[in-house]
Amino acid sequence: MSLDLREFRDALGSFATGVCVVTAHPEGFEPFGMTVNSFAAVSLEPSLVLWSLQNTSDCYAAFEKADHYTINVLSESQRELSNYYARRNQHTLLDDHYRIGKTGSPILRGAVSSLECKIWARYPGGDHVILVGEVLEMEYSRNEEPLVFHAGKYGTIR
């Protein structure tokens, strides 16, 4: 069976997801972030989450060096932040966008939730690498609505 890759991508886009910016500050790199929507829960005990990174990403080398990162689930008011950190070669965090968390990883201000993780495992996944992280620290705001992505467009759950 041969899939039409555009049609496959469109089919995947029919699944509504949240929007996250994964942030890190590995040795030898500036604090940086990149927009992703490939985030999922794995386990409650231990507390594990995953996301995937394209092998050709301009952030690949930095994430190879990272042993900690933060998954920042964006709020509906953070579309501009999502767009900003989605651009190729535009991943250095702006000073007013973040602060340093308890694990030393950058945390975005205004996120619905921020999960500070230690790398648990890396797995090959076709043209991506799957990064599994153990959540060490977290912050969660019940007052913020998440930013949603569906069929190539942003939305909200309201």
TrEMBL record:
Keyword Metal-binding on this protein?
A: no
Q: Which InterPro entries match?
A: Flavin_Rdtase-like_dom, NADH-dep_flavin_reductase, Split_barrel_FMN-bd
Q: Oxidoreductase as a keyword?
A: yes
Annotated Gene Ontology MF terms?
Answer: FMN binding; riboflavin reductase (NADPH) activity
Q: Which residues form a coiled coil?
A: none
| Lineage: superkingdom | Bacteria
> Record's Pfam families?
Flavin_Reduct
Q: What keywords tag this UniProt record?
A: Oxidoreductase
Provide the Flavin reductase like domain boundaries.
Answer: 12-156
| Family of the protein in this entry | Belongs to the non-flavoprotein flavin reductase family.
What protein name is recorded for this chain?
Flavin reductase family protein
Q: Which organism is it from?
A: Dasania phycosphaerae
